[in-house]
Amino acid sequence: MMEIDKLKKWADNAQKFQSEEFWNNIFDTQNKNSTSGSPGTMVTELFPKCDLYETDTELVVEAEIPGLLKENLHICIHHQLLSITGEFKTLKQNRKYFIKERPNRKFKKEISLPYPVIIQQVKSEIRYGILSIKMPINKEDIENIPINFNQS
Fold this sequence. Notes:
Elements: H1 2-18, H2 20-27, E1 34-35, E2 43-44, E3 50-54, E4 58-64, E5 73-78, E6 81-88, E7 105-112, E8 123-127, E9 130-136
Antiparallel strand pairs: 1-2, 2-7, 3-4, 4-9, 5-6, 6-7, 8-9
């Protein structure tokens, strides 16, 4: 009986992955299902896939954006929230498509940064389909708050 239950769960999951609604939700820019990479960081939107890591002096985000032109990309930081918005424009006029699997689509990825950064010194570049954003950490805005012990 246990094996039948496992098989039923597997079939239910397989059916979910085959549904068009499931895949539309993955690329839906209105989808606000949040995932968290670590405490203090919050990510909305599953696309584009990103890494956020820290070096000794900066936070770095690397995002996969193959085929995206820089004219169709916008980066903004406001109150420790990094927003990456863009639009893939794959549909070309005057073409007779036999297969069209890459739709035009807009996206907005928001990442809550774990530390304040020096916005005036942020640098970004696109190389081989990878967007790299380097953000120097603003150590002056990171304050240690003293804790008073009251034992009375």
